[in-house]
């Protein structure tokens, strides 16, 4: 360990790290917290299946759309200020379901919370990268990435615990309380912003909202409507058009929202790709395993959350040291090894059957979380390191946008493959059922188990057949996710940069990116980062 590695953080910097990590954990936990409460919400509010889908996805869609413009606003007007605004909006939106609980009000409240989350998420990372010494920046980013990666499990665990004692509205009481607490804490951390910033890229901001929004909307609707549905096809088509408009505008703009040439840099581009793949497979496995634990093992929502909780241990521990390992081993080795470990974990999950035990589930998830711990923090650090300090808000927003897009794709792909596998294998049993039982059995394993339970002892054969059909879907979705992770590793083997030379950092200024693209880019605005207590 060098002298630079032993630079100690001040008490104020440690407190800033705590506030930033808790804030990003709140954003991610809120995304997953309602998964376990959807049945309770349906009974209490009379929400349809489509409305329940949008209770969850309305938050994700708005967050994904607005995170890039929000990151630019943080660079321009102050990262702490934008974090404070985001926490205030998030907390106010979380109060609404406590006052009015009709389905459409609930969807609107979640969308409003997504606006707040979009302001919060990039600020939590850019506050750290702009305010920490270069020698400790990697460690701070590693801790941030570990907490962000564990946020989904924390949300499922917290909501499961609350639902064991109180109603579904208790989740929003918890979100509001944590949001208000962090809002007060945010006033105690330092402010940072870009001095003399250029004009805001309004056209680029509008274009990226449409580009991301339309693509994510199509991804969300595809499992429900079908991938060939006109609405889904139109969403993808218009999203591609908006993306082309965004890219062309950004290439021509004097002060772009996001200089798309950054993606030609190996660190920035491969880091963004790696994070997309990581969150695609991670949220895909959450969708599959939560249902597996509840429907096959019969676990409660809290029990299923506790069963997945050990995943957090290797993820958090490795994320803290992965940046240090990356400086010695290189981004390529870390990301490729991590994704291959994730692929191996999915392969073992695909081997689960009706006789499997919890141990058979636990050790593949530990392999996957080890892989995620190896690759999450280095990929995030690569994005930030390849961007000048005054653009760290936008870099953080790119990191966050790739997470949201990857999560949306993962849920859509895993859900579609799981549903298709179940439907195909349950079909022979449906023809022998009474007409009134066919719909619930065809829809889901939960519906089939309910029909089997009402049938008494005679329903055991149906329950076993439906569970077997569901396991076929689990096997197929796990194999698809394993192939995606393995393909991502193969691409990164060629794309990601290797270990930097020992004198690489000495030959460039602190604000200069570590990796250079051969494609020329416009000069950065002559701005200096301004720190204020």
TrEMBL record:
Gene Ontology molecular-function annotations: transmembrane transporter activity
Region (Disordered): 500-533
Record InterPro entries: MFS, MFS_dom, MFS_trans_sf
Domain of life: Bacteria
Protein name, as recorded: Putative drug resistance transporter
Protein topology in the membrane: Multi-pass membrane protein
Organism per entry: Gordonia malaquae NBRC 108250
Cellular component GO terms held in the UniProt record: plasma membrane
Bilayer-crossing regions: 15-38, 58-74, 81-100, 106-128, 140-162, 168-187, 199-220, 232-251, 272-293, 299-322, 329-349, 361-384, 405-424, 478-498
Alphabetically ordered keywords of this record: Membrane, Transmembrane, Transmembrane helix
Major facilitator superfamily (MFS) profile domain ranges (all copies): 16-500
Compartment(s) where it occurs, according to its Swiss-Prot or TrEMBL record: Cell membrane
Pfam families for the chain: MFS_1 (PF07690)
């Amino acid at each position: 360990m060098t002298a630079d590695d032993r630079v100690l953080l001040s008490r104020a910097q440690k407190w800033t790290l705590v506030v930033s990590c808790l804030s990003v954990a709140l954003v991610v936990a809120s995304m997953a917290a309602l998964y376990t409460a959807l049945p309770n919400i349906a009974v209490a509010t009379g929400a349809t299946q489509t409305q329940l889908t949008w209770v969850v996805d309305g938050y994700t869609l708005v967050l994904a759309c607005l995170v890039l413009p929000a990151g630019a606003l943080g660079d321009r007007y102050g990262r702490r200020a934008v974090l404070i605004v985001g926490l205030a909006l998030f907390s106010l939106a979380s109060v609404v379901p406590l006052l009015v609980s009709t389905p459409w009000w609930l969807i609107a409240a979640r969308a409003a919370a997504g606006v707040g989350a979009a302001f919060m998420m990039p600020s939590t990372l850019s506050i750290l990268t702009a305010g920490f010494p270069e020698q400790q920046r990697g460690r701070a980013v590693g801790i941030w990435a570990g907490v962000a990666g564990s946020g989904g499990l924390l949300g499922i665990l917290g909501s499961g615990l609350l639902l064991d004692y109180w109603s579904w509205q208790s989740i929003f009481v918890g979100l509001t309380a944590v949001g208000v607490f962090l809002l007060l804490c945010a006033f105690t951390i330092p402010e940072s912003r870009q001095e003399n910033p250029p004009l805001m890229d309004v056209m680029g901001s509008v274009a990226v909202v449409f580009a991301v929004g339309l693509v994510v909307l199509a991804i969300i609707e595809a499992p429900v409507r079908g991938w060939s549905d006109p609405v889904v096809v139109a969403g993808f088509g218009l999203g591609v058009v908006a993306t082309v408009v965004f890219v062309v505008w950004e290439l021509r703009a004097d002060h772009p929202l996001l200089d798309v040439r950054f993606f030609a840099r190996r660190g920035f581009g491969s880091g963004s790709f790696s994070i997309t793949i990581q969150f695609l497979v991670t949220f895909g496995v959450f969708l599959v395993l939560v249902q597996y634990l509840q429907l096959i093992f019969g676990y409660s929502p809290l029990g299923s959350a506790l069963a997945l909780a050990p995943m957090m241990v290797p993820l958090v521990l490795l994320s803290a040291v992965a940046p240090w390992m990356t400086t010695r081993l290189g981004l390529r080795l870390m990301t490729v090894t991590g994704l291959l470990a994730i692929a191996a974990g999915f392969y073992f999950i695909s081997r689960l059957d009706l006789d499997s035990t919890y141990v058979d589930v636990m050790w593949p998830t530990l392999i996957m979380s080890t892989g995620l711990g190896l690759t999450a923090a280095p990929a995030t650090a690569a994005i930030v390191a390849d961007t000048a300090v005054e653009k760290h808000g936008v870099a953080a927003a790119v990191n966050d946008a790739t997470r949201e897009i990857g999560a949306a794709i993962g849920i859509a792909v895993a859900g579609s493959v799981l549903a298709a596998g179940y439907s195909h294998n349950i079909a022979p049993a449906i023809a022998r059922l009474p007409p009134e039982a066919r719909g619930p059995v065809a829809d889901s394993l939960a519906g089939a188990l309910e029909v089997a339970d009402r049938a008494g002892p005679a329903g055991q054969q149906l329950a076993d057949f439906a569970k077997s059909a569901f396991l076929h879907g689990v096997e197929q979705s796990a194999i698809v996710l394993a192939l995606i992770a393995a393909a991502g590793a193969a691409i990164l083997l060629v794309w990601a940069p290797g270990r930097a030379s020992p004198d690489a950092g000495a030959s460039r200024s602190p604000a200069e990116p570590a990796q250079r693209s051969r494609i020329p880019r416009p000069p950065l605005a002559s701005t200096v980062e301004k720190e204020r207590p």
